């Protein structure tokens, strides 16, 4: 059962309240407003108006989301999937990744190395331990080449404690 919409709160009021905290994709906002009991037609009109006024932008959301996930040490595969799940079109996802490249880009291989070295103190002595490290990076959204590179180079720059 849907929650009853606040009699005084319009879809715009609720959307502005949400957007004041962080960026949201259009699909996320639509879902949240519907959960508050707003009518689908009113939600669509509200989201169109917010987009026209520049208060909501899927492109801006995608760029912000990408930056935050990179800082968390997540790989490109996981980030792309998460953006898709949030209703961001493929072209906007490509654009966000291109924009990131234009700003100096991100070295996914180096990020995989940093993420792995932060979590594990070494490459592992047994095949089982190495497989655990591979699964960790794959689960974080790094592709096969990035995982292989990280396993070979994550601890290269570690200070020698001998």
Automatic annotation (TrEMBL):
Subcellular location: Cytoplasm
UniProt KW keywords: Cytoplasm
Protein's UniProt keywords contain Transmembrane helix: no
Domain RecX third three-helical: 109-151
Limits of the RecX second three-helical domain: 57-96
Main location per the UniProt record: cytoplasm
Organism superkingdom: Bacteria
Cytoplasm keyword on record: yes
Pfam families cross-referenced by the UniProt entry: RecX_HTH1 (PF21982), RecX_HTH2 (PF02631), RecX_HTH3 (PF21981)
Residue intervals of the RecX first three-helical domain: 12-48
InterPro entries to which the protein is assigned, alphabetical: RecX_HTH_1st, RecX_HTH_2nd, RecX_HTH_3rd, Regulatory_RecX, WH-like_DNA-bd_sf
UniProt record similarity statement: Belongs to the RecX family.
Task performed by this protein: Modulates RecA activity.
PANTHER family: REGULATORY PROTEIN RECX FAMILY PROTEIN (PTHR33602:SF1)
HAMAP family tied to this protein: RecX
Protein name in UniProt: Regulatory protein RecX
Species name: Halomonas alkalicola
Gene behind the chain: recX
């Amino acid at each position: 059962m849907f929650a009853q919409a606040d009699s005084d709160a319009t879809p715009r009021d609720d959307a502005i309240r949400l957007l004041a905290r962080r960026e949201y994709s259009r699909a996320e906002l639509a879902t949240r407003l519907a959960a508050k009991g707003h009518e689908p037609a009113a939600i669509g009109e509200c989201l169109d108006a917010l987009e026209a006024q520049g208060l909501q932008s899927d492109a801006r959301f995608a760029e912000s989301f990408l930056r935050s996930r990179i800082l968390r040490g997540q790989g490109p595969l996981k980030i792309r999937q998460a953006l898709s799940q949030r209703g961001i079109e493929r072209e906007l996802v490509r654009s966000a990744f291109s924009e990131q490249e234009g700003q100096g880009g991100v070295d996914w291989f180096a990020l995989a190395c940093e993420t792995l070295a932060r979590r594990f103190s070494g490459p592992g002595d047994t095949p089982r331990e190495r497989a655990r490290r591979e699964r960790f990076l794959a689960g974080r959204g790094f592709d096969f080449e990035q995982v292989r590179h990280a396993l070979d180079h994550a601890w290269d720059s570690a200070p020698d404690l001998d």
